[in-house]
Structure formats: C-alpha cells, structure tokens
Design brief:
Blueprint (H helix, E strand, L loop, with lengths): L4 E6 L3 H15 L24 E8 L9 H4 L22 E2 L29 H8 L3 E4 L6 H14 L2 E4 L9 H9 L3 E4 L8 H14 L3 E11 L2 H5 L7 H12 L11 E8 L6 E11 L5 E11 H21 L4 E2 L1 H7 L9 H13 L5
C-alpha cells in the first residue's frame, strides 16, 4: 500500500492556499513537537498523516496563477487569506489552465483587478490527461459557487481517469443520484457536497438547532447572515449563482429538526461583500423559540473566523478518508465522511452520529 496521497486541485484560491500552507506546516514540525494534532481532528488518520499528502497537479483560470509554480500561485492575487506559513518549498507543479465555462460571474468585471479573476489568455489543458499523467488519487474541487458546468466537466474527468472527487462546493454531485450511480459503477470513491468548516456558521447553527430541539424548545424562526471580503463573497453577489448554496446550507440546518420550519421562518445565506474583511467571515445568527409554559427564548451569536483555514482543517481529513477507501477498493459515495464533512451529503445525520460513523469507517468497522 502506497503511503503517499497524490492530490490534484481545481481552483488555486484561498482554500488551496490554506490547505497547502497547512500541509507544509504540519510536515515541518519537529518529531518531538509536544502537540502535533493542534488544529486537526486527526493527526494520524488510518495510518496517514498530513505529510503523506502530495499535491501533484493544479488548475486555475487566472492569469496571475496559470503557468506559475504552485508555491507562488497560492499567494497571488486575488487570494487574500492569512499567510500563517510563508516557508513553502518550491513545488514541481505548474498551475495548468482549466476550462472557464461558468467558473466566473460576469459582474466581477466591474470590480478592481486585485479583487477579481483576470482570465488568462491561454488555451485550456486536457484535464483528464493531466490527471492521468500525474497519477492523482484525488481531485479537490475548489471552484467558485455556482460553477455547475465546470464542476460537471471536472467530474467527467474523474470518471474518465478513475480519480476520486472531493466536491467542496455546493453543486450537487455526490448527493445527486445520477452522478452517484456513475461513480458507483466505476467503483471510484467520492465525497461531497459543500464542505463544512471546522468551526463554522453551519456546524454551529446545526448544533444549536439540535440543542434547542433536544431540550424541548420549539424553534419558531431562525436566520444566519454571513459577510466576507474574499472572491467567494464577491462571486456570490450574483444571486443567480446561489440556488444550490442556499439549499445546501438551509437543508443542513433543517435536517436537525423533527419538523422542518416553513420557508418564511428560516433564512440562511451569504448577505454581502465587504472588501476590507478579506478572508475573514463574520456570521450573525439568531434563533427564536418557545420553552416551558410557552415562554419565549431567543439566542443571538456573532462568529468571526478566517474562512479558508477553517475549511482546510476538514478537507485534510476528507482526503485521507478518500485514500483509505481506495486502498480498500471501496467506490461510490462515501456516506460516513460525506455526512460528517459536508453540508449537503446524500444522507443527513446528526453531527454526533456522523462523527461516530466516520470513526467506524476509519477503523474498518463500516464500509462507507
């Protein structure tokens, strides 16, 4: 069994930057470092550690990234996440030009160049060929929200080459029966859709919703409003790209209730783009309900997180779960990892139950 996990990345944005910085950060820790698991749900996952992850290919469409070494591209504009590890070694990976398709929202052209994509004037590579030649085990999709055609294009490349897919965005692939069956037929593991952050707005909203329900409080209304200053939030100013995003986030919360709220009583979604926030995401959350004796109770919460590292802490586990499935020759949708790591899995579970299922999957007590 190979101890290296070969990973390709579609979309060299803030999330890719945080993930690569993190891999190199944990790799650089001295063997006597007192707490190597700091910031990780698992340091050793099924025998795989962060340093076993090797990035072998990358795709983007921005002129400031395409054609550049990956270790330089992850710090190029419009990326704006925190640099918590600037000591990235030279990578033998050059960022390839991907297909544009619907990966760019047209309204972004109205913003300064440093905040938006600048499409490279270069022909797209053959993604399937690059995946094949690189020997990638897993493709991470970090495409912009609303990239339905582009996501389908990369999913087809995975099916063609036998590469596993971890779909981190809210375009429904792993949770769609048509796509799920195709990955099942080819025995290719897939995890998706729409990554949960380590401690983010959705996981907190789900947890509090279940707490209210378990403690006998009837929830009447709830909202979750999110603002940020990265290109993801700029892209999402186009509300036409948000249909699947709102479904994903809303269903993640509704799934924790015995009786889902009416549409008019729940609002979850990105609210605005504030440039100076950069990769900082701020969530405003409110829950209104009624407890004992029909007496009102309400909760308000403000969460501030660096968005991209918050996602990388989960992706690093998803990558290793995908490799475990490949080692075991298990294909199709990985139900347990998808339920724990993703907002819109094929089957929803409580986070407590999903975590238990993932631990059983890692230990080999559960196939998927």
């Amino acid at each position: 069994m190979m101890r290296v996990i070969r990973v390709a990345i579609a979309g060299v944005g803030n999330c890719a930057s945080s993930l690569i910085q993190g891999i190199e950060y944990y790799k650089s820790l001295d063997k006597n470092y007192p707490d190597k698991s700091l910031g990780l749900m698992h340091y050793d996952l099924g025998g795989y550690k962060p340093e076993d992850i090797k990035i072998v290919a990358a795709f983007d469409i921005d002129a400031r990234k395409v054609g550049r070494p990956l270790n330089e591209a992850i710090f190029a504009k419009p990326n704006c996440t925190k640099t918590f590890n600037g000591g990235i070694p030279e990578y033998p990976v050059i960022v390839e030009m991907g297909e544009v398709l619907d990966g760019v929202a047209s309204h972004m052209e109205n913003y300064p160049e440093e905040r938006r994509f600048v499409i490279a004037k270069k022909g797209a590579c053959d993604v399937a060929k690059v995946l094949q030649n690189s020997g990638a085990d897993v493709l991470l999709s970090y495409l912009p929200v609303g990239s339905e055609q582009a996501t389908a294009y990369y999913a087809e490349a995975c099916l063609k080459t036998g590469t596993s897919l971890i779909n981190c965005i809210p375009v429904f692939i792993a949770s769609d029966k048509f796509w799920a069956q195709r990955f099942e037929e080819k025995n290719i593991p897939i995890i998706g859709d729409d990554i949960k952050s380590q401690v983010g707005a959705t996981i907190i909203h789900r947890t509090l919703t279940k707490l209210f329900e378990d403690r006998g409080v009837k929830i009447d209304n709830t909202y979750q409003l999110n603002v940020g200053g990265n290109t993801d939030f700029l892209n999402m100013l186009n509300r036409n790209r948000l249909k699947s995003k709102k479904i994903s986030k809303t269903e993640a919360v509704q799934s924790q209730l015995q009786t889902p709220l009416m549409d008019g009583n729940i609002h979850i979604g990105p609210s605005d783009y504030i440039p100076w926030l950069k990769d900082n995401k701020i969530c405003f959350l409110r829950i209104e309900g009624r407890g004992f004796g029909n007496v009102p109770v309400s909760l308000e919460l403000r969460l501030s997180v660096e968005d991209s590292p918050n996602s990388a802490g989960v992706v690093i586990d998803a990558i290793r779960c995908c490799k475990i499935a490949r080692d075991r020759r298990v294909g199709g949708v990985l139900i347990s990892p998808s339920a724990y790591f993703m907002k819109h899995p094929m089957v929803q579970f409580s986070d407590e139950e999903a975590r238990k299922m993932v631990e059983e999957f890692i230990a080999g007590k559960r196939e998927r």
